[in-house]
Design a protein that fits this description.
24% strand; five-stranded mixed beta sheet; 4 helices; 146 residues; 5 strands; Acyl_CoA_acyltransferase; alpha+beta
Length: 146
């Protein structure tokens, strides 16, 4: 397994993983996907962390490091869209991607890393706890457009 930041040539593998995460999402037009992918890759502080096995992307997490003026101007990190291909689950790939993302956050001197999930299953929530995430410290809210 290789852990690394995703690059321009990884779009197809990323899209495959994201279909597993949100199977009801409409398929993006190729030009829209490409434009957004390039924008993500060029976004300062954003890294799509991937686990690659035998040339195939098997897990990913998106890391965003946000500059900050509190906590002695230390940034904070957001982690989203964590997913592993179903055929590779329960083999440590998601944990490895999360550890890779957290290492990058700590190297950037982040004072915290936040992760949100829409998963409600106790297994998924326990997985995040085993990866070092603690619930109950803060309350999270989400607003969505009408």
């Amino acid at each position: 397994m290789q852990l690394r930041p995703a690059g321009e040539g990884d779009l197809d593998g990323i899209l495959r993983l994201l279909r597993e995460l949100n199977p009801d999402d409409p398929e993006l037009a190729a030009d829209v996907a490409q434009a957004n992918w390039l924008a993500m890759l060029n976004q300062s502080g954003l890294t799509v962390c991937v686990a690659e096995l035998a040339g195939e992307l098997v897990a990913k997490a998106t890391l965003l490091i946000v500059p900050n003026l509190t906590r002695n101007a230390r940034p904070y990190a957001l982690i989203e869209n964590v997913v592993t291909l179903p055929t590779h689950r329960k083999r440590g790939f998601a944990r490895a991607v999360l550890q890779f993302a957290l290492a990058r956050a700590w190297q950037a001197n982040c004072y915290k890393a936040m992760l949100s999930t829409s998963a409600r299953s106790s297994g998924v929530l326990e997985f995040y706890r085993r990866c070092g995430f603690v619930d109950g410290i803060k309350t999270g809210f989400i607003a969505v457009p009408d």
